């Protein structure tokens, strides 16, 4: 079954810029992006999945997106739920104009925003995928993390073959439980990281409601997450930004942010935590969104 929906994001929305992070040097194995159409298997709230395709139908100032959903069966409830998920994950209702106005007090960041007008973050579909992806990426470069992720998908994920392309279903907790962490070494994932991911999956299978953390304030989310093995402040902050869209989260220890600030502000070295907090004070209440612009925006 195939359904098509037209979505209207708030303006501005630069489709090409928002997906520029999917470059050949940083291939995300869960996503197919040919420069025009974003495609991946998307988990729906009812436990099933659909293949989504998203393409631009408008302009930066008058944006429209075409969303196509494909699955063996799609109910009216599925369509409504999936559309809401897509709007949230692709930040279609985020008020970028308010963000740009708020950071005018910081000429450096404001200039980056003007150069990257319409750049919108892309969130992960759920917290399990966000956190496990963050664990894979701990203390390694992004390219290597993508290679590990691809190995995990090839080894453990279900496949969906469409139009000559193989799409992977990101493994669900039930599919990760009970796996042997030594198997993960086949695709260069450390045993310890495998233990963290398997442990999180088993905790969820035992009844822990990970998604319910999204109902809590930022500080409480972080506090609950760092109680879990393998999740420190950086992973918790990443989950707040890329999993929940908490746009005032500041990942003070993030190497990408520190390097971005060093480059953008012409510093001779990476800023200290105190220096970063002082600079970022002008970004409130959008410190996490500012971080995203320093991560992915064109320099």
From TrEMBL:
InterPro entries: AlkA_N_sf, Alkylbase_DNA_Glycosylase/TA, DNA_glycosylase, HhH-GPD_domain, HhH_base_excis_C
MF GO annotations: alkylated DNA binding; DNA-3-methyladenine glycosylase activity; DNA-7-methylguanine glycosylase activity
GO cellular component entries: cytoplasm; protein-DNA complex
Catalyzed chemical reaction(s): Hydrolysis of alkylated DNA, releasing 3-methyladenine, 3-methylguanine, 7-methylguanine and 7-methyladenine
Entry EC no(s): 3.2.2.21
UniProt keyword terms in alphabetical order: DNA damage, DNA repair
Record has Membrane as a keyword: no
Matches recorded under Pfam families: HhH-GPD
Name this protein carries in UniProt: DNA-3-methyladenine glycosylase II
Source organism (scientific name): candidate division LCP-89 bacterium B3_LCP
């Amino acid at each position: 079954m195939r359904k098509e929906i037209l979505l209207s994001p708030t303006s501005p929305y630069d489709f090409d810029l928002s997906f520029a992070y999917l470059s050949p040097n940083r291939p995300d194995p869960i996503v197919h992006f040919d420069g025009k159409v974003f495609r991946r298997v998307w988990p729906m709230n009812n436990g099933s999945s659909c293949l989504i395709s998203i393409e631009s139908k408008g302009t930066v100032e008058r944006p429209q997106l075409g969303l196509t959903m494909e699955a063996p069966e799609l109910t009216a409830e599925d369509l409504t739920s999936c559309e809401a998920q897509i709007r949230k994950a692709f930040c279609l209702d985020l008020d970028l104009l308010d963000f740009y106005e708020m950071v005018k007090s910081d000429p450096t960041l404001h200039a980056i925003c003007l150069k990257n007008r319409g750049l919108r973050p892309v969130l992960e579909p759920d917290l399990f995928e966000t956190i496990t992806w963050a664990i894979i990426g701990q203390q390694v470069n992004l390219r290597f993390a993508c290679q590990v992720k691809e190995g995990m998908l090839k080894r453990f994920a279900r496949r969906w073959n469409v139009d000559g392309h193989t799409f992977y279903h990101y493994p669900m907790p039930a599919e990760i439980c009970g796996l042997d962490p030594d198997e993960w070494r086949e695709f260069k994932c450390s045993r310890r990281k495998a233990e963290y991911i398997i442990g999180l999956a088993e905790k969820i299978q035992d009844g822990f409601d990970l998604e319910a953390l999204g109902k809590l304030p930022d500080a409480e989310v972080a506090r609950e997450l760092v109680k879990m093995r393998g999740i420190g402040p950086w992973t918790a902050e990443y989950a707040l930004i890329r999993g929940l869209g908490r746009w005032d989260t500041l990942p003070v220890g993030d190497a990408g942010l520190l390097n971005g600030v060093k480059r953008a502000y012409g510093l001779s070295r990476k800023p200290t935590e105190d220096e970063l907090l002082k600079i970022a004070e002008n970004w409130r209440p959008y410190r996490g969104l500012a971080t995203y612009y320093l991560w992915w925006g064109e320099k």
